[in-house]
DNA sequence: TGCATAATCGCATTCATTGCGAAAATGCGT
DNA sequence: ACGCATTTTCGCAATGAATGCGATTATGCA
């Protein structure tokens, strides 16, 4: 899932192989359980050798998260490359919007992925670690916004709240059609509430300090 | 690290064995690295068989976190058993105060633990998963306070902010004496700022809704 | 076509983890 | 102090993930 620019023939083939492995693996995980599926079975289903699976993925867990691939890099880029005057929360908002397109086109796979993750503590931990990396990116960006240090309380709280809303938006499903994610308008309404919360928190803290 | 009431002779011995394993393991991890230390080495250093190490701990990672033991249970208890009229944040505040006593008496071990954790991605993930469990407890308690559902935004944001401050308080060290944790007064001052943030956020959200 | 390069593979090794049954230690009543 | 029931510890074997290394095969380009 590395960011590939030059679509050399070789590269495309590699991407296809990686994608195949991840896809059949997810199927097997969903059907037979994550723990009960061995690398050997995945290799066979993907028609490659077990050794090849291990060269593509540093760990069994990583296969499950191949879908999410470059998310972190894209978030980092969105934060780094945000236009002057646009703050972190605004950048996060538009990043979520752009990620949504991807989510929509992979809704089934993602829901399958979620089911697999929830069934294994190791995968849950892996996911939390990934989300924590998002949080670190946000802390740094927010610290710049607020003219504070990443170790300070405000950027930390703001970032954790931001991550909380991202988490909610990624996993929450429509109450009626449990398989479908919330519609955009709904998501953005929730995001704006989160924004209100964060701004309210920051302001409250500033007022208290001013006192 | 199960909650032991009856201190039967056998139980005490078991606790001692567990504690010994965890202690020598932490030493080895710190000295030689987590990955480079094998269960066999730990077993030898603790003077038990490798098999015994595995019966005490479900995974190598769990050895590192033996110290933290019943923290989650204690938090759950603190939230469940809080006096009527005391809200979640107040309960969390006094829980942190009571945990501090433990932290103080194990400062060296905890700092050693931290060093080991930061050096391994798997351990970082494991820790994030534990912290996330704290967050789930807080979400549920806060949802009750706010008369909302655990899936709603406000308890989630409040809980994630609460976890952020807990995280900061557990890891932040005094700027002068890097090895010592922040003094109580400092910690409580920070906690109260977090409280201000959360209350400010919740109020802002309510006002926005009232509009 | 032929060659340089890169992808795959096979094999062997290390290590964590688990099940199972045996062996040793313990605690308790007599 | 003794013997028995229970619990803890252990040894052994098996499974499976992950990795290093060198061989083998496939690929793309001149």
Compute the number of helices of chain A.
10
Helix content of chain A: over 70%
What Rg of chain A is obtained from the alpha carbons, in whole angstroms?
20 Å
Number of beta-strand segments of chain A: 0
CATH architecture of the largest domain in chain A: Orthogonal Bundle
The main pleated sheet of chain A reads as: none
- The run of helices and strands of chain A is HHHHHHHHHH
Oligomeric state as shown: homodimer
CATH topology of the largest domain in chain A: Tetracycline Repressor, domain 2
Choose one word for the global shape of chain A. Answer: elongated
Low-pLDDT stretches of chain A are: 1-5
Class computed from helices, strands and strand pairing of chain A: mainly alpha
**The CATH H-level homologous superfamily of the largest domain in chain A:** Tetracycline Repressor, domain 2
User: In the residues of chain A, how many domains can be counted?
Assistant: 2
Distance between the termini of chain A: 51 Å
The amount of beta strand of chain A, in percent, is under 5%
CATH C-level category of the largest domain in chain A: Mainly Alpha
Walk me through the structure.
The structure is a homodimer of 211-residue chains. Chain A is built from ten helices and no strands. In chain A, 31% of the residues are buried. In chain A, 74% of the residues lie in helices and 0% in strands. The model of chain A is unreliable at 1-5 (pLDDT under 50). The termini of chain A are far apart. The longest helix of chain A is centred in the C-terminal third of the chain and has 27 residues, at 184-210. Chain A has two domains: 2-60, Arc Repressor Mutant, subunit A; 66-209, Tetracycline Repressor, domain 2, CATH 1.10.357. The first copy, chain A, has helices at residues 9-32, 39-46, 50-56, 60-64, 71-80, 88-105, 107-118, 121-146, 153-171, 184-210. Chain A has 211 residues and is mainly alpha-helical. In chain A, helix 1 packs across helix 7 (107-118), helix 2 (39-46) crosses helix 3 and helix 5 (71-80) runs antiparallel to helix 6 (88-105). The radius of gyration of chain A is 20 Å and the shape is elongated. At the A-B interface, helix 8, helix 9 and helix 10 of A face helix 8, helix 9 and helix 10 of B. Chain A binds a DNA duplex (30 and 30 nucleotides) through residues 8-10, 13-14, 17, 38-40, 48-52, 54-55, 58-60.
């Amino acid at each position: 899932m590395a960011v590939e620019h030059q679509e050399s023939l070789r590269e495309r083939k590699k991407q296809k192989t990686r994608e195949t492995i991840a896809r059949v693996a997810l199927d097997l995980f969903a059907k037979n359980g994550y723990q009960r599926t061995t690398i050997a079975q995945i290799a066979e289903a993907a028609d490659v050798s077990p050794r090849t699976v291990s060269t593509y993925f540093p760990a069994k867990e990583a296969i499950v998260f191949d879908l999410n691939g470059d998310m972190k890099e894209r978030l980092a880029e969105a934060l780094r490359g945000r236009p002057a005057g646009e703050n972190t929360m605004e950048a996060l908002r538009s990043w979520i919007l752009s990620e949504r397109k991807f989510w929509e086109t992979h809704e089934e796979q993602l829901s399958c992925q979620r089911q697999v993750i929830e069934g294994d503590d190791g995968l849950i931990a892996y996911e939390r670690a990934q989300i924590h990396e998002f949080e670190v990116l946000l802390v740094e960006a927010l610290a710049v916004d607020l003219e504070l240090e990443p170790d300070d309380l405000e950027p930390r709280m703001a970032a954790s709240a931001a991550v909380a809303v991202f988490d909610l938006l990624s996993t929450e499903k429509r109450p009626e059609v449990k398989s479908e994610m919330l519609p955009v308008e709904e998501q953005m309404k929730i995001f704006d509430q989160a924004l209100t919360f964060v701004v309210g928190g920051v302001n409250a803290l500033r007022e208290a300090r001013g006192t």
